[in-house]
Fold each of these.
Amino acid sequence: MSSTLLQIKELKVHFPMPKTSLFAPSSSAVKAVDGVTLDVKKGETLGLVGESGCGKSTLGRAILQLIRSTSGEVVFDGVDLTRQWSHRFGIWRPKDRLRRLRQRMQIIFQDPYSALNPRMTIESIVSEPLKTFNILSGQALRQRVQELMEKVGLDPSYIRRYPHEFSGGQRQRIGIARAIALNPDFIIADEPISALDVSIQAQILNLLKKLQKEMGMTLVFIAHDLAAVRHISDRVAVMYLGKIVELGDTQKIIYDPLHPYTKALISSIPVPDPLLEKSRKRTILEGEIPSPIDPPSGCAFHTRCPIMTEACKSNVPKLRTISDQYDHVVSCDLV
Amino acid sequence: MTPLISVKGLKTYFRTDEGLVKACDNISFDVNPGEILGVVGESGSGKTVASMSILRLIAEPPGYFDGGEIIFEGKNLLKLSMKEMREIRGNKISMIFQDPMTALNPFLKIETQLTEVLVQHKSMSLDKARAKCIEMLKKVGVSLPERRLDMYPHQLSGGLRQRMMIAMALLCRPSLLIADEPTTALDVTIQAQILELIKSINQEFNTSVILISHDLGVVAGMTNRLVVMYAGKIVESGLTEDIFNKPSHPYTKALLNSIPRIDKEQKQLDPIPGLPPSLSSIPTGCPFHPRCAYAVEKCKTTYPETAFITSDHISKCWEVSRL
């Protein structure tokens, strides 16, 4: 298989909580990402799924170091990004090396309404990364912007328009044009379709798939919709309460999930087929995701797990390799 | 079977700065006693306005009813006074909304919001109403109901808030429950819980349900019959199984081909080209023709007549035979 572009080791992102009183013991923290180890291979699409609050967006941002991680490593093409920060006058600033590396790593955001500055024209939005890194200027810059617009399926004659003149799907295309402007090696798409109408979602999914193929990019696709993730990803990682509970080849995860959470997640997704829906056996999980401030002891999933045993309450399960061929790892002691 | 509620030729229009918006344009459907009717469509297709029209929750002005009638228990709801409507809302017909955070009053305890329904409609004493609420919360699967009653909405999770909404809607044992995208704001595992709950309510209390959703997967498993809306019009309706087995409108068919599925391998998704139209500038003729793969000259000028696939399965398309 191809080489590794990105290695994440024991990555943690904890957000400290304000102390409730002056005399309170050490302050607690929201453990949004709590020890994630993950490799992303060159040229692949890795899907990252989980429910709201599981830490998938925080993980995405920590990979790009848009937020500083608490501990652990993010090695991008041989460079540990978490070390590329300088601390001066009480403020953490990214070092030049991190800034330069960011040319090669881009992000597409969930909400195409808030991700674009309403006071900027499409031209200034899409050209901004090219200007920031002094890559192009003048006529060549405009030409490149028009080229990018065509690439994402927008009419280049709209170049002077403002975001409010576009629909949600078109805005998402503008966001994608901005992300691919620098020909990045690596893109994180954070829920890029969940704010869009059903009939538009497929357009954006197909566009991402096409661009990824044409430009040979590596893509991390974050979503809560496992059906969409399945369509676009080579491998899928499932997150629960800041940890990865299962990871493997997409086919393997969909047809032969091992972790009880993955099983329940797949069985909760409704299928547009009335006959199949009637005959399907559904595992309905009880309760809701516990708070990441005070996650359950042992296996974090034990409070909702249908096959939980006494041991699960105290033993923290480790990610174990089930099959090398499918890169299949799972963190459940009962599998 | 006499339908529980019968919507006939409903026209809900809005006068806006951009012109006349025909949010519901000649909509007709029935809901039979004890059945779950699904209404599917994308945002702006008019599905929410249709349900708001039933409860007369449309602000008039700018909205007004240009025609049609909604017959419920022998009365035309569109002709009732606001006082008479208040007797029906929350009592005989209840609604649960998409976003349980904005539908509950953040300043009032859950207890106040729940008991109000019974005090208003059934003239119950507060103590009796409270006991009744606790009983209902248990039925909808809320643990520790006594403690939850003392809480404010922000202290509850999304799934619990939606259960509170459902409990509130059911307190007076309505004969019709309108659920407007009840699970869109929730996670999939919580969605599965809430859908299961709605199904069991339908069976246990024999409450009819209108389930509004944009998710074809949700309606497939839940509903007996289905209405597909596009640009303020019903483009296809029939038994849920018939519509999924033999989608007979190009829009329904295209929608089914465009969604990624968990149960099947798909080499390629076929997106629907273009965008859903704005309701203030609906294309002439068939509103779907600019995005339709089957459109012919006639579709651009003339709105299709009703085509009967079976006596119960209808489609508004000129080119049904080619599908």
Amino acid sequence: MGLPNVSGDFSSEMDVDAFRRLFPLRFYERHLVESIRPDARPLGRARDTTLALGAVTSTDGSALAKIGLTTMLAAIKMEVMTPSIETPDEGCIAIDFHMPPICSPLVRPGRPAEAEPVVSKQLCDTILSSGMINMKELSLISGKAAWMAYLDIYCLDADGALFDAALLSAVAAFSHLQIPVVSMNDDGRVVIISEEHQEGKDPVNKEKRKLTLSSIPFSLTSILHKKYILADPTAEEESIMDTLVTVVLDSSGRLVSLYKPGGTVLAYTSAIQDCIALTRQRVKELRNILDEAVSGMEVD
Amino acid sequence: MEIDRIDERTPNQLRPLICSRNVLNRAHGSSSWSQGDTKVLAAVYGPKAGTKKNENPERACIEVIWKPKTGQSGKLEKEYEMILKRTLQSICILTINPNTTTSVIIQVVSDDGALLPCAINAACAALVDAGIPLKHLAVAVCCGLADSGDVMLDPTKLEEQKMKAFTYLVFPNSVFSVLPEGSLQVEGEPVENGIITSVTQGLMSVSFKFVQVEDYLHCIERGRAASAKMSAFLRRSLQSQLPSDTLKAG
């Protein structure tokens, strides 16, 4: 299996793997000309995506999302807190993204990965500005008690498009979330009551509730390289071609975020429109995947 | 449609720009950039020998350190560092000084909205002052989107909080060229229309139409118009030879 003559003299007698390592960019460009990628995907196709809800039983809501090899585990823990004075009838969400050394050879123990605070901040901005969660729903007693949702996302395998997988797992964890039942104890404090001791106590919130999620955000990261747009890049592609564009659209088609942090390729209007069109397709796919996962849970 | 702004600017009006270079003695290049009450100080040290870990030694490496006005740097500062680093990487010619590191240190002096664009402009002026080889300059502008759908340029902090969405856009500066007109065009658009960096926050565009990105495209259009003005200002202030020379935009 020899490649056609592209790198002059010695590529004809070179092994494909060696060529890939020595001339990664040329290796990719040879594929791009044929509108195909080394993993046999067309340029605009995202990798296979799977979603499993309820992966962690000790939490109130959890999900495991896989986009290709990129794996994210999201879990939500609910705690009762006193709401702030400015927003007495609103709860709060704290989002944290973790990249343990297990996820990639680039992450060393002891030193946090560079991407960690960035993805964390991006997730926080996206989830809050999309208005997916009505903070008022997280209120228990106005001015006295409200829910604090701790959302932790662990990256188990980092193979590109980290933000997409993280957002998908976060959204799925919220749709799996079951708010625990609480009651007022003798000291006047709101406590979570466990299933067995429910009798004799008056629950503040009647039954286990689910959050109503309006306009769920979904995202697609693409690479711009010359005139090509590669959807859902792998870690290898991200390291070779440096211009990333992440588009987040919500389920009603509004633009939540268009994020392009630098990169050598400039984005013109047509490229932006193409990226948005690709994302719109992907939103439909992801919606179906999420709906299937949620309905699968209800059957059980 | 006219909207009232707190400081009685028109929607397209930027705040007064002040740029001074060579403000620090020990730094290899420095600049101070202010837009109204937002002020940022940038210093450039380098190129120093060697690259950081996990960086490609065949290219020059750029390191950005963001110092907030008060307190320690948190997630927001880390995100700004990453955006700034990638933006500067895209305008520097990284192949000229391989295996070197250039440090860009940003110190926020006062924040009154549009902080990241202000820092990008300051960093760009400081890189020029340090003589780091650049492909072109970067011009950053902040576009705010009011509830009514109107675009306001360069919002103050108070305006930013009231707006439903805003976006930071970075464009290349407009070039003077001896080449015939049109030869620098990419896909029918001039080079300076290409977006280097885009960061948005908040929901954009109305929900009753099918194609719902007009708001964003509208922002880009207005941002481009403003970036042309800013790049003219940047050019004027960089051309002035006297180090203490400050120019005010009209």
